Amino acid sequence: MYQIIDGKKISQEIKDELKDKVAALKAAGKNICLAVIQVGNDPASSVYVGNKKKACAYIGIESLSYELPEETTQEELLDLVKKLNADDKVNGILVQLPLPKQIDEEKVIQTIAPEKDVDGFHEKNVGALVVGSKGYVSCTPLGIIQLLKRSGIEIAGKNCVVIGRSNIVGKPMSLLLLRENGTVTVCHSRTQNIREITKQADILVVAIGKPKFVDESFVKEGAVVIDVGIHRNENNKLCGDVDFERVAPHTSAITPVPGGVGPMTIAMLMYNCVSSVE
Ligand code: GUN
Prior knowledge:
The chain is of the alpha/beta class. It contains ten helices and eleven strands.
């Protein structure tokens, strides 16, 4: 029988731990403030931003909300980011991605002050992760490490395979697994004979962005499978990058969609916000 890794429960534990920490910080006269910027009104982004603001309220973090119109220029957005960089009251700045096409995402990310980059996307924070020094780490991969650790899953010495090489998930995921002493392989769209590689995985992290891409032919018997994807299927039901029904019986532990990795991203954003003042 396999274990279902309960991201909802684990994220709630983390949020409750953070709530206590924030109360103690407040008692010591330290407030935390996160600025959240959304450009346009992509419905998925609105849901994510709403959930981030709700989590802030729950934990006791002040959130400042900036909802800018779709036609906002790059200069206008950069001006706002620079204003927030200079504002001592603001500890963290989050610009929800994706941004409208007239705006250069990379330029915006690199303009956020690294010490306020609670998403961990700035080159300085990515570089810190590479060399193993202190810095913010991207929330989704950070949350996956917590899911594994809090479910009693050992990483050291294990064969870890990551499918996907994005800056937000795949690359930082591979570096975090390496930091935990896993033996790490990264697969992507150009990987040949991918199943030969994924079949070696003790821990398989799937962040390819394709609904139900991974079936049982990718998975070694008894592996741990982490599904980062979230999609709507033809019946408007949520599904991941992994075909859960087919894969789960072959695993020792697996994350569901929804209720697996998703809630962890927000919990770790809150963690990063709290570490901004600690
Ligand atoms: N869009 C999808 N995931 C993320 C995330 O983790 N941070 C931000 N800022 N935007 C996103």
